[in-house]
Every structure is written in structure tokens, then in C-alpha cells.
Amino acid sequence: MRLERVGPYLWRIPPDARPGMRVPGLVVADEALIASIRSDASLEQVANGATLPGIVKASLAMPDILPVGTQAALRETFGSTCHGTGRRLSRTAAVKAARGRRIQQELEAAGVVARATRRDAPAEEMPEAYKDVREVVDVVHRFGISTRVARLKPLGVIKG
Questions:
Q1: Which of 57, 83, 99, 142 is labelled catalytic?
Q2: How far apart are alpha carbons 81 and 146 in whole angstroms?
Q3: Closest CA to 67 of 78, 83, 52, 53
Q4: Active-site residue flag, 83
Q5: Shared-domain flag, residues 106 and 45
Q6: Which of 49, 142, 150, 159 satisfies CB 3.0 to 4.6 Å to 42 for a cystine?
Q7: What is the pLDDT of residues 35-82, one digit of tens each?
């Protein structure tokens, strides 16, 4: 799959990389992660997503576990699979739970760049505010409505 580097952590699959792509594919990853996902189906799935009607501007692959819907998903869930984990804490509860902590510094210490326009925004998005992605994807994988394609590592959080 043809892949162009467009920034330190941003890669682009041009729309002419495969027939039927309506938009480019964008992948957020460092060089080590790109090297590892070249050997699995992740880039193909980003390109597949770029062929779907309704995808606007780009098919985007963010660091996370990338699940792909199966034939069972077409029968059981209208072709849908999880696109995220869902919140464990409301935004208000997350801000309250984060009092006294320096969430932005904690994220940066873990290698995740965090930028926000509001002081409380990093706390709203702290990892503990969300369900564990492995647990969520394991459930849909066990039920046969999704297949794990790749595990990606977060590099950044932008909160407006």
C-alpha cells in the first residue's frame, strides 16, 4: 500500500492508491508503529474505509485497537462495530476525579502530546474516563461481530 509521510506522526494513503477510494486515508503513528502495521491489514482497512459513501475528507486511523466488522455484524448489528469504548466517567465526574493531578503532564510523561483550549479539558479526556478498549474489543470479537486488526499506540490528544 502506497503511504506518504506528511508530518512527524501523520501518514497519507493517496486516493489513487486503490480503485474506488473517494478520499485519502490518514494514519496517525510514529515510524516504529508504521513499520509494524505494514505487515498486517491496517492500511488495507483504512483504504477500504476510504471507499465507503459518507466518509468526508479522509478515512482516519487513530492509535487504538482497530476492529473490523464481520459478516455476522451485517446480520446482527446492521454492519456496525464499535468505533470507541464509551465513557466510564461523565466529563464532570472526570474533572472532579482529576482534582490535584496534573493530567497534561501525566499524558506527556507517557509519551502522549496533549493540547487543549480549556484548563479542564485534559481531565475530561484522561484515560480513566474511558472504558478499557481491550475489554470492549474482546467482547465484540468473542461475539463474532468484529475482528481485531491492529493495536495502535496513542501519540496525541487535541481537545477544543
A1: 83
A2: 6
A3: 83
A4: yes
A5: no
A6: 150
A7: 878 877 778 888 888 888 877 778 877 655 556 677 777 777 777 676
